[in-house]
Each structure stands twice: as C-alpha cells, then as structure tokens.
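Blackboard transcription, Thursday session:
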Amino acid sequence: MANITKKVSWSSRADESGAAGEGTPLLNGSEQPRHSRQVQLAWWLTVRLTAVTPEESLDYDNIENQLFLEEERKMSYMGFRCLEISRWVVCGLIGFLTGLIACFIDIVVEQLAGIKYQVVKENIEKFTEVGGLSISLLLWAVLNSAIVMLGAIIVAFFEPIAAGSGIPQIKCYLNGIKIPRVVRLKEGPMIHSGAVVAAGVSQGRSTSLKRDFKIFEYFRRDTEKRDFVSAGAAAGVSAAFGAPVGGVLFSLEEGASFWNQMLTWRIFFASMISTFTLNFFLSIYHNKPGELSNPGLINFGRFQGDSVAYNLYEIPLFIAMGAIGGLLGALFNVLNYWLTIFRIRYVHRPCLQVMEAMLVAAVTATVSFTMIYFSNDCQPLGPEHTEEYPLQLFCADGEYNSMATAFFNTPERSVRSLFHNQPGTYNPLTLGLFTLTYFFLACWTYGLAVSAGVFIPSLLIGAAWGRLCGILLATITPDGSIWADPGKYALIGAAAQLGGIVRMTLSLTVIMVEATGNVTYGLPIMLVLMTAKIVGDYFVEGLYDIHIKLQSVPFLHWEAPATSHWLTAREVMSSPVTCLNRIEKVGTIVDTLSNTSTNHNGFPVVVKVSGSDEPPKLCGLILRSQLIVLLKHKVFVELARSRLTQRKLQLKDFRDAYPRFPPIQSIHVSQDERECMMDLTEFMNATPYTVPQETSLPRVFKLFRALGLRHLVVVDDENRVVGLVTRKDLARYHLGKHGLEELQLAQT
Amino acid sequence: MANITKKVSWSSRADESGAAGEGTPLLNGSEQPRHSRQVQLAWWLTVRLTAVTPEESLDYDNIENQLFLEEERKMSYMGFRCLEISRWVVCGLIGFLTGLIACFIDIVVEQLAGIKYQVVKENIEKFTEVGGLSISLLLWAVLNSAIVMLGAIIVAFFEPIAAGSGIPQIKCYLNGIKIPRVVRLKEGPMIHSGAVVAAGVSQGRSTSLKRDFKIFEYFRRDTEKRDFVSAGAAAGVSAAFGAPVGGVLFSLEEGASFWNQMLTWRIFFASMISTFTLNFFLSIYHNKPGELSNPGLINFGRFQGDSVAYNLYEIPLFIAMGAIGGLLGALFNVLNYWLTIFRIRYVHRPCLQVMEAMLVAAVTATVSFTMIYFSNDCQPLGPEHTEEYPLQLFCADGEYNSMATAFFNTPERSVRSLFHNQPGTYNPLTLGLFTLTYFFLACWTYGLAVSAGVFIPSLLIGAAWGRLCGILLATITPDGSIWADPGKYALIGAAAQLGGIVRMTLSLTVIMVEATGNVTYGLPIMLVLMTAKIVGDYFVEGLYDIHIKLQSVPFLHWEAPATSHWLTAREVMSSPVTCLNRIEKVGTIVDTLSNTSTNHNGFPVVVKVSGSDEPPKLCGLILRSQLIVLLKHKVFVELARSRLTQRKLQLKDFRDAYPRFPPIQSIHVSQDERECMMDLTEFMNATPYTVPQETSLPRVFKLFRALGLRHLVVVDDENRVVGLVTRKDLARYHLGKHGLEELQLAQT
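(Written on the board underneath:)
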C-alpha cells in the first residue's frame, strides 16, 4: 500500500454537484466552425448524458441460472443454427440501415450547404461591386446562427446525450458502462448512429417508438446487445469514412475485450454492407447507378500514381511532423479541458448553451469573413477546379480568393482541396492564418451543445499546416522539385493532428489508409500516429479520455496499473456485503432493494448448512433486476403452494422487462406479502466466478475485464462471502505521475 | 448427456501408432509444382512435428506465486516503463529480422529460379530446331527433382516440423498447444519464420545455437513468449504479402483470445517494420535505393484506375464464383485428406518421403512439359511483356507459347500475369487445361515432406479458372466489351479458390486487398470469401483444420459447442486428482512425477486444517516444471535449516530452466533425501482460478479460453478439490453431424 501516494478527487464532480439536478451537460458536443454536415443535422434528433441518473454497469457475463440452462438445453442444434442465422440477418440490417442513414444525411447536408453557400455567394457577389459587404457578413452570421440554434435547442432541451461526437459514450458502453439512453433513437455522428440502429434492430423493438415486433427476443440481454452495438459502431465508421476494416478495428480497439472470430466476421459483414448501401444509393443519387464510386461520406480523394510515393529520407520529416501534431494536439486538449471545466461551472443552463452555440456560429462566420475579406491571395480558376463555391471578391476576373476555398466550403471539400490541389494553389500566409484561426475555433466548438465530432476539424487543421510544411520545404531546399507534392504533407499533417488529439492508433491508421485508398502511405501514417501519441501522451490524455474522465465514469482500461501488485482482492473489494438467503423473506428483499444509501445491483446468495452453527456459504448470485421481476410477478413460496396452476416464471418475463426494469418504488408489496418467502434457487446464477482474498489486483482485473463481469465474489477458504468486487472498485486505481493513485469516483 | 450420440476416434492415431516411434510426419508439408520460392529454400533449414513427444499445453496464465509477486512489487514504475520499452525494441527487432530473412529468401529464390529457367530455356531453344526435346524434358525433370530432393532430405531426416506451410503449427501454438520444437531455429514459409525469429529474439538466447545473451530474461514465460510469437507471425504475413494490417488480423484471428490494445499496436509495429525492411533492402537490390516500391514478397501488382472498378450487376456473378471456389476447395481438401491418410499409413519412412517428393517434382515437370509441347496457343510478344522466360517453341518468330507463361514461370509471376495481362493473352482451352492439371498437382503436393505452403498454388488455380470465367462471360454476352477485363475475374477466382481451401475470412480479405493495393475490391472479395466458406463448410473443414485434426491435438475453438449446456464441470473434469500437500515428502513428489501412467503437469496443493478430521482444502496449484526445478536445487526444509546461508531460490532459476525443463529421470534424489520435506508455499500459485462442480461446460470453456488457462481446479462448496479440467477435457467435445460428439484424444 506504500505505493499509493495520494487521493485525488476527479476534478468535475465536486463542482457540479449543485447543478446536477438540472442535467448538467458533463459531456458536451462540438460544432465545427462553418457548419459541417453534422452541425447542420443536429436538429435531426437526439439523446444525452445527464448527471441525474447515475450510470450503471452492464453485465457481459451470461446469467446462468436454471431457467437459462433449461432453455439452452431444450434448444436443438437447428435452433442454434437459426439463432446464428438471425445474428447475421440482424447485422446485415444494421449495416443496411446505417448506410441508408448515412446516405440520407449526406444528401440533406449537401442540399442545405448548397443553399447556404449559394445564397451567401450571390449576396457577396452583389455587394462586391456596389459596396456594403457588411450586409453579406450579417447574412452569413445569421444563417449560421439560425441553423445552429435549431440544433442546439434540440440537444440542450430535449436530448442532451446527442451532444458531441458520441465516441466517448460508445467507448463507455462497449467498456461495460450503461449511460442512460445512450443507444436510444437519435441521430448524431455516424458512429453513434450506427450503434443506435444496432441497439434498436437487435432487440426487435423500440422503447422510444413503443413498438415491440416480438422478434429477436433471445438477443435481449447485455452480452448479445453489446455484440450488435459493436457491429453498429463499426458500420457507422465504415459509412463515414468508407473504411470497413477500419470500422472493425475501431470496434475492437474500443470495445470487445474477448475477441471472437465469428463475431468479428459478422461485424465486418455489417461494415461492408453499410459502405455498400451508402455507395449504391449515392451512385443513384448522383445519376450514375451501379458505379459504386462513393465509398464513404467523407472522401479524401484517392492518392494514386508513383508521383506521390514517398522517399526514405522523408521519413524523419514525417516523424517530426508527428511530433508537431502531438504538441498541437496536447495544446488542443488542454485548452478544451479548461473550456469544458468552465462550461460545467458556468454554462449549464440549456438557454445559455444555446446562446453559446449561436455565439460560436456567429463568431465563426465573422472571423471567416474577415479573413477572406483581407486576404489578397488570388489564384487563377483552373478548368477543372474542385472548388464548389469559388468567390471572386476583389480578385481579377477568372481568379478566385484562395482563403475562401478554405473557409467558404464544407470542411470535407476543404480537406480534399488541401490534399489534392496543384502545388501553388495556396500561398503560405493563407495557410498559416487559416491554421491559427481554425485551431482556436475548432477548440471552442468541441463541447458545444450540438451534435458534431472532432474528426473533420482536426483533419482540416492538420492538412493546412501540413501543406504549409510541404510548401516551406520546397522553398528552403535548393532543389525544390523533389518535394513536388504538398498534398502528401497535407495528408501527413492531417494524420498527425488527428492522432495528437484523439490518440487512436491501429484503427486510425487503417481508417486513413482506407479513406485515401492508398496502401503505400500505411507506414508513414503509422509512424506519424505513433509519434503523435507518444509526444501527446507525455502532456495530457486523448480528448475522448479527458471527456470520459470528466464524466467520472468507472472506465476500465486494458490492464491493471503496472505497479498494482501490492493490492489484493482483500483491499480492493467492497465489504461487508449484503447477502440474501436462498430462501429469503420478501420484506428483507424489499428493504434491501429500497435502501438508497447502498443501492447495490448484485447480491450474493448464501445458504446455511442445516443443523450447523457455521456461517453460511456462497451458493449463487442474483441481480437487482431479477429480484424486481420476481417481486413484480409475486413469485412467493406461499402463493405457489396455494395456486398450483400458477404459470411458472420464464426467461421471457425477464426479457420483456429488459433493459428498463421498473424501480423498486413502483412495485407494491402488501404487509402480508412481506411475510412471505421467496425461493431464489431457480433464478440465481448458481456458479458465479469467485476469487480468494489473496488474489492480486492485476489477476482480479484480468478476470473481470476478460469476461466482462459486473460482480465478482470474494470468498475465504471455506467458501464464505467476504466481499464483492465491482467495476468501481477496480477503476479507482490509476497510475499517476507519482505512482499508483486512488481516485474517488462518484458513489464508490 | 442424451445429446452425446457417439464416440468417434480421431482418424489417424489408431493407424499410425505402430509407426509413431519412427517420427511419422503427421503433418506433412507441400511442394508447389514448379518449385516456388519456398520449395527451393526447403534445404535452408528446419524443424518438424514428431509423434514421438506428446504435445503439451502452454500456460498463458501467469503463475502468481510469492516469488513472482515479490519481484513485481519490488519493481518501480520506471522498471515497468523499461520493460515496456524493451517489448517495443524486441518487436522492432522481430520485424527487422523477419524482413531481412524475407529479403534474403526473395533474392536467393530469384537467383535460383533464374538459373533453372534460363538453363532449361536455352536447352529447349537449342533442341526446338534440331529435335530431341525429350532431352530438355529430362533436364527439367532432373533439375526439379534434384532441388526437391535436397529440401526433402533435410525435412524428412532432420527437421520434420519444417514440412508444410507452418500455419497449422503456429495456429496450435497460439491456441496454447506446445508442439515440440515448433519455434526453434528453422526456416520455412514466412509466417513460420517470423514466429521462429520472435521466439528466439524475445528470449534473448537460442537453445539451438546454445547462446544466452542474458537479456530479456523477464520474457521467459509462456505468456510473454506467445505475445512475441503473435508479433512474429504477423511480421511474417506482412513480409510475405506486403500486408501489415492483414498480418495483424491473421495473428488475432488465429491466436490472441484476449485482445489487448497495446499488444495489438506492438504487433502492428512489428508488421510495419518487417514490410519496410523488406521493401528497403529490395529497393537497394534492385538498384533503386529509397524507392520503397516492393511491399511484399508476393506482389500481385496493383489494380488501379476506373477501368477495373466493378459494377453492381457483377456481384451475383462474383457470388457464384465464390460458390464454385467453395466446391473446388472442398474437393481439394477431401482429396488431400485421403492422400494424407494414405501417407500416414504407407509413406512414413523418410526415404519413402524423399522419393515421393522427387516423384512429384518429376511428374510436375513432365506434365508441364507435355502441356506446353502440345499447346498451339501462340501469342504475340508485346513490347513490355511481363513474361520473364517467354518460350517460343513452335510459335512463329515474335510470338511465344501462352501455356508456357502459366507453367514455365514462378507461380507468383504466373498469378501476376493472369491478373494483369491484356485481354486475349490466354485462350480458354489453355486456361481450362492448366486449371485441371494444376489442381491435381497442387493437391498431391500439399503434404509432401518439403517446406511449402498452399497459398500461392491456390491463388494460381483460382486465377486461372477465374480468368477463364471472365473470358467466357465476354464471349457469351452480346456486348462483350463491358466484361473488358478478365484480370478482375482472375482476382475474384483466386480469392474464391483460396477461401474455399483455407476458409480464412477477415484476415484473408485484408491480405488480398493489401496485396492488390486496391481498396475498392474489398466488398466483392469479402462476399466471395464468405460464399466460399459457407459452401465449403457444408462439405468439409478447412485444410488447416483438417491437418490439425489429423494431428489429434486438443485444439480449442472460439466457443464451446452450441449444444453443450447439458454438460457440467463434474462430467468434464478429470477425477480423481493427484494432490500434493503444502509440505510434502520429497519421495512422494518424485514418485508422483515419475508415474508415467498419469504424466500430469499440474497438481493442486492442499492443506489440512490442523486438528480436524475434515478433508484437506485447496490452497494452491503447482506445475511439474516448478517441482523439477525445486528438486534440482534441492529446496528441502531440512537442508534449509542446516545451511542457513543457503541462497534462496529465485524466479531467475525458473527462468533459466524455461522452456526445456529436464525430465524427472535426469534428477538424482538419494534415499535419504527422499525422506526430506519440501515446503511448496512460496512456489505454488496461491490463487488458482476455480469453478464449482455445477458450472456448465460453456462457462468453463469461456473462462479457460479467455484467460488461456492450462489447469482449472474444480472444487466443492467446502473448497475441497474434486477434479481438474485441462485442455484435453474441453477439446474432446465436438459438434458433429448428429449433435454433440465426444472424441477420443491421444492420452486423454
């Protein structure tokens, strides 16, 4: 224990406790300056994390009670085959629907952005000649704010969980933390959408829509649902970036601790179907049916041909850019962290949130307009220009304002133009100014009460300074021609910046490779992401981890802290434990469940050896949710005796109640009934995993994490219950700068 | 139990028991007709599975005894950081060396193949005019047989484990089965090489070379070694196909059951370094230093440009081709299965094996020559022909024999030319005949006593009939031009055939995508592999699984058979168990270890409650290997008392003995010493995982598989040992056509 140097309180909880009742947006969303597709669709639905409901853990270990075993034993081989086939069907459906949603979003955003930019463009053109461009600025700012207001109102007032990119929430869900309403009907960025679709489809019903199709009832438990949510998240990534393999790796990296070949294969299937669906419908929309050339929502264009291959001596440069990305990423994260703390303290009322979002939108428009206005970087308009809305402004005829291609455009298009435009399209000053302003705007934006991610803004910042690096290299070296392609450096810069912010590794490499359609850049991208992660981790954690920490959820990492062999189950466990007898008085159960001071979710079941004075021994484990269903159906020993024909409780009854079991307060138990007895034998998990008290923390951790447990019973050598280890007991320990630290989590 | 319909004996054991002493090559290698790189390098070293030494299990669960915990607790945070860094260094080294080996192999094979084909070509050209081509045939056959003889002699007489592709062996190793000498110095196909390099480097010593560098001693245990072997296998795949992501997925699909983000990232690092090293040195060899354009040994050429994108209506065609691949793959596997059985029965003497290999080589040359001789498919020699050794034979000047491009070439080149040659390069008859003959030759070849895989031959067969399909489609449809590119169908055919034979899924898709450098073919390849797997699985298992089964090793699949909820730990476990007391007589321990009839590897340690009549309770688990080290160092209670200064046994002593602990017979224990006592407290794992008797088989299986256990103690509710579950107990149950079947494994 000597290693535990201090107790640190997780920074946010203490401050926001007063405001918790109002639904403080602990994890806020972000808006991308200039209204990327996500922002513009923020009105299109939602959910959000509130601090009101304490998060629960999920149970990724099957509850093997007698009912479950009976059902499994009754099932024939064909039954299992059918189940397997329905899993595939569900995954196919998830992929299809996710692709469809992506397609819908793409088209709507395309249209909205088109209208907005067209209106502003015409207005600017009108007033460039006659003077009075301040009216154009006003129009732009008002248009921006109005769209954002719509999105922010929905998020802030109705579904706060739709804020942000949804990635931290999905990470938590796959880790085993139930964030209320995280997978209910909503729409946000694609990853989250995919997960929501998955949760809906796989359960064969929707609580939000109050429909139950009576199908897929077998899948109504945490284990199965998690698998489908993994598939959904993968399908989402796949649709967003046209990166099916990247999607699978994302799901695995963030979620599944136990890797299963068939599951992975199904996840891959969902991802593929999702890309394919998107591709297919977009090809119809673009009047080229069957051409399948739109792999993802975000298309970086293809890097092809030998002209862009890199050379060995460029690798140190790439690594240096990775380090820059790590530094800038760390700066971004620190700034955003302070901003988030500030928001938690002062900007927690919905109306304030909406106002902040509108302010950001207006400021973004103003800054963009100012930058464009004062820029004198004019470029000739090529015959096959990629700029959708070229602004002439004060440039000569046949030329356009280069700053406007970066600011007056959807971010995806800006990234694409930074990657692929001819050398000389941008001058260095434009890129430098753009990077600087956009960096702070993006940082301010992430955490707003709108539904938007950090991926595209990061890529855009990185592409801008990356391209700048490329141009500078070409300028300072004697033989500039060997650095012919600044687009290559834009790609590396984009990877470095994104890696420095989110700190994803394998999956991000693959996503970047798939999104650019070029395998040869795999090694440089990997090296860059690795460098960015190492450099960034030296200063501060990744953005998603920061936001997860601010939520103070008991997130379990991959391994126990390295120096935690000092600790054993004895020190880690919660003790004493509330145990129930195998045949227990209803009153005791009701009182135990109603005890708000403990609010436990799992109870070891013990049995006394008849005619002996020994303390009772462990014989099973039962969950709060199961007890509630038992109480609701009044499964009492006395009643069973009197009503012989009473229908036996089945697994179906538990499934129907899943996942929103009623609270104990809603169940009425009369004074007579309180004297009845309940026999838990059939319903408890008779073979819970146990560990002895001397088990070291890493060993407990490994068991817990590998099997996705929720409760682990600690027993002595006589098989008597001495404690219970839950997720919060394990998540407390944390490797800080001064060795092992013990954190105080909410309600430990 | 009603579901267990019959007991089946694994087909091979019974038959070969008589020959086991001779080292029957249960798992034989293959040769690719026409001496691909692997075959030609078969002389370049080896290892092999012998039936003599029974395979053991590996222990992927840390042995947490007091020594281990003390060491971990003494280690500072910096110590763990250093360990982490050395893991990265080791992975980098593994990648580097694997890449180097791949490079070396590539150059040597290139040279050898060059010489061979040049000599034969000149000879053929000489005799085409004057007649007497039979001499050329003879020359070719003799050259082939000579090279194969060299390889086969080394494999058959010295290192039989080098036979085959090495994939089944690595699969087993990662699954947790120790196949003697599987990771000792040898060379075979790249995957195996990578694994061997990893095992050598990570241990900081080589038993084969008898050198101990006294570094990386911490890594001398099964868990760490497995992680490095995973990295090595990935690096091997990566070098072979230029597919770093595919390599990682291969390792994960076949190996790691517990997915760890950092580990995966390290594996990816090794893969990347390996591709990069290969690429770098090959670019120097090809006089284009720094150009990095040779991603892998096997290069399919890049599919690029819009001309080769597929269309929606082609997807059903692709799926149909997948089904054909599944059928042909199943046929291939069935034929090879019969052949392997035949070999196990009749071709088990090394000299017979060498003769068979030579026969195959000679027949291959003869058949190839005959095909070329009678072919009248002449094609004009283009200006930038990809054929390295164009044979004119009886064609007009400026033309070459098309059959010869398929037969008279290294298989990689043949595949490449099938993928990329202009439409019209092959006529359908040539392709049809080639497919037919090559199919049977390849089938005969896999399982020979040479070191070669099935990947390239499968791809070649598939590419041939795939291209044939493409040509036929162009012929029968009115507007042939839309099927312009038969190369696309060759790719799909190759994927279908390979998928039908090996039944790999996700990793194979990614490998194919990376090797072709084109992301857009991801979906068709996935659909094709899926169809091939579904169709093939209907008839027979994958080739690797067939060979693993023929070895009768206790291979654990991902999940317990679906219908095994009937079984509980009570039925599955081995019982009664040989237990040791915590303080045990040396004589008892020696007798227990010497008992050849049981030959257990793990023993529960029990302790009697003092002054009570109750049966003893479980207090730990100790391994045979640990006991042997203890006996060797004479760690007896009496000696410790007399020699107070005696050095305390440390973890180092166990590590030095790892992994080849001496047999019990080699340890001399005098009659006096037999009366001494040994105190196991410090050395046993005091917190072994346990399960109650009622635990269902799937639950036991999940625990066992997820944590990579070797022994799982079954206890009753008083914590008394009632049984022990080992890998073999779990691997016995198998889902057959008639429900759950119980297999008889060797020495269950």
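Lecturer's comment: Residues 564-744 of chain A form a domain with the CBS-domain fold (CATH 3.10.580.10).
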